[in-house]
Queue: 3 jobs
Job 1
Amino acid sequence: MKEQGLKGSYGFRFQEHPYPFQVNLWNIGWEVVKSPTYSWNGQTRMDREKIVFQYTLAGQGALVYEEKTYSLGKGQAFFVSIPSNHHYFYPKEATTDWEFIYITLEGKEALSIHDHMVEKYGPILVIEKEAEPIRLLLRILSETASGEITNSYSGSQRAYEFLMTLFHFLAVPPKKKLKEPITQAITYMKDHMSDQFDLATVAHHVGLSKYYFIKQFKHELNITPMQYVSILRIKKAAYLLSKTDLTVAEVAHQVGIDDANYFTKLFKKTVGVSASKFRKNEDVHLIDYIITEWE
């Protein structure tokens, strides 16, 4: 559905209650306001256990949040809970219409997630329209307008998806291209995973001092070089345990760890079970590969 056909407000009032969902849709819409009569006070409205995410597409709005006033322009969103000490409105001095899309969610878990995000990132978020949370919000609005969300199951699914997409967007910035020395270092670590090497050797290989290399690596990947190597080794070890008949000690040696006790502790810390239980598929269900944030 084309964007111009999405304007309007929709309320979800599903009558069946098959399960006490902790997050669900309540309202969604695309509105254009031009009058100071548009005003919502978070302490006087009747709604309870709701959160509102409202994203400005054009024009200007305003939010008073805990006695502090914020001007809302294109590309800015506010995120508030109901009830709480806030007030959002169309300013009397505004000279252009305020155009925005919004979603209101209900449920205790929605409030809990909201409180965590606001504590960490604040009530005002700057997000490009092409970013995944806004694209998803427009998709949910389109699905609503076309009648695709017809029950509390699909409503809760979309509500969770939106919250987790927003959370992920804020917590994990889009991947950027790594600087060449860091890319070279990662290649070296992967190629020499089975060897006993130190960080000074890796730093020398990429033409950096050890100190600067460690600092740059952590800045780029948000993890230290040795933590990264440890993850590489445990992922390779998991593969060898599931696909070969090598003993645990032999697997440890194959991934560059000769201290069997250290290997056992590191494997359990990373995977959640011991290497022997992993091989026997005890406490895990037929896992062949370990997935982490890093390759």
Note: The beta strands are 8-11, 24-33, 39-41, 50-58, 61-65, 68-72, 76-82, 86-89, 98-106, 124-126.
Job 2
Amino acid sequence: MKLSVVLAVYNAEDTISEQLEALARQTWDEPWELIVANNGSKDQTQAIVESFSSKIANLKIIDASQRKGASYARNKGVEVAQASMIAFCDADDIVRDNWIAEIAAAIEQHGFVCGPMSIAALNPGWRIQEPIGVRVGDELFHASDLSDHYFPPFPKDGGYFRNGGTCNMGILKSIHQDIGGFDEEFLRYQDGDYCIRAQLKGYKLHFAPQAIVEYRYRLSLRDTFSQFRDWGKWVMLIPRKYGPPTSLRKKISYVFGGWWSLPLEIIKVRSRAGLFALITGFAIRLGQSQGCIEFMVLPDIQDWFAAKFGNSGQAEGAVNQDPKARLD
């Protein structure tokens, strides 16, 4: 087996058929397998995947419901993978017909790669108007290159660590194992943490421009707000995990700072797409404030109580909680 594609799924009955059809159309000459890691779906996802067993030769479906989260599901998928190269994609997107060949070639050359996300095929025109899309030639992308991570940690030689999404990522299994897989504490933004840990270990993240996926946006304001708020919240685990010690005063000031530009952004809205851009920016900032409180401010307060009053608060569950028990 040359390549193992790991697809983590949860309640994906509305979109997964399109992704599986796209994977069934792949025409790579080398042997590859698809591992669908079911994270406890309660809809018809399992049955839909099983119906593709005759279309995708090396299709495996595994139970990954023991712990909530895509990180856990992807780790379970990699555990059973037979190939030395691993590719990740998502159930609500569609890989292009040459994706397997392109992502495999990029992994073989570089070891750790991410590809672009095109947005024209799966989204209505109003949703992808500027300032949402990034135009490259005649095509609009959600991500046309790797992005920079602007929170600590930072590379020792300056600049920023690069990020890519697990909806279009490839890596050698040996690298995945060396960095310890995905951190299962993260329920969102696990791909950012994964990229940082790989680069901290010395593995450079490369861009694979020809390994393209069609990326699907959420179309309701409520779903969009929830998605970006969660991203904002969970990104705050990164500075807690890697950043230098910061005073409680600075953490609290971060929670309440950065809101001054919101009235100006509201005035700038001229289209439906602009409204979605405003909502996403607001949701991310709200999530960051929420994450800063939950992951950074409250632990500091708990530590202060623990230092001042000893273990008396443990009976009430107020101090020294296991972070995983608190976040799951």
Note: The first strand starts at residue 3 and ends at 9.
Job 3
Amino acid sequence: MKPLITLVVFVFSVLAGGCSSDGLAPVAYSPSVIATMNIKDMSVSFIDISKRKNIAEWDVEKPYNGGIILPDGDTLLLYGKTLKEADLYSMKKGEKTGSWKIGKGVVNGLLLSDGKEIVFSNDEGNTIDFYSTKGKQTGQLHLNAAPLTLLESGKGDRLFAVSFHDEKLNIINPEERKNIRSFPIHASAAGAVLNEKNNEVWVGGHGKGSNIEQSIHVYDIETGKLKKQIHAPEMPVNFTKNGSGLFVLSHGSSTLYKLDTNGAEHGSLRIGANPFEVETVGNILAVAGYDSDDIYLVDPENLKIEARIKVGKGPFQIVKGGK
């Protein structure tokens, strides 16, 4: 019986070695790896874009709704609106390594391009909170309403804050922690992208009441003037861009649109079920289907679906590293 016992112990040790003390599978991070925040089952899925496969599933058992991969390429910071702390995990170890006390109400987070600071949007205090990547709070700015959408200019000298509850876009100097100026925008705004070539910010939205938003609103960055509207039904709420064009995801119609910098449409694709997020990862677009529980990988040139990968339930945000 001893050889059998030895074999059982060996197999158990091998299986246990594949998981951390937190019961989470280790993840070898690379620029082709993304994570999805799945809010229906409180899980995190890891996708390797280059392999076209789901490489790990974490059952985190907390209502996280957002995440950031820190510049060390290993630490995954997870936060949630109802949580008082943001938690830090080592991906390669599959272990929780610490927490930051950031307070309840955080609805969005953005790692600034210098890699030294993170900006959190707090919906309870209506503040923009600045933190170092070591977890120390370095500043705070009060607004009329916390923005759901945060953008950084190409030079890193301005932040653009779009609120769903306040019909206003705020332009912020991140170094001085002050609001440079603001201008009125449409109601129930959500999602935005900078088109700096034309000195524009494109803003999407859900619509108000029974009036479902059908268009992207294009504002002049300097004057705040509404220059035009681009038809992109229904509910254009998420954006990304690359050298091929600007892409808008309308979750009301489950449609991905490809546009040029002048707003002309160069294709569209029905995709997923109630998709909320599109992200550029290398030379691929990743689209999260919230109700279909999957990630679609799309060629940005021709809008052809290259792969469909199952993830946890309710993928709400796609998290990638780098800038």
Note: The first helix runs from residue 2 to 17.
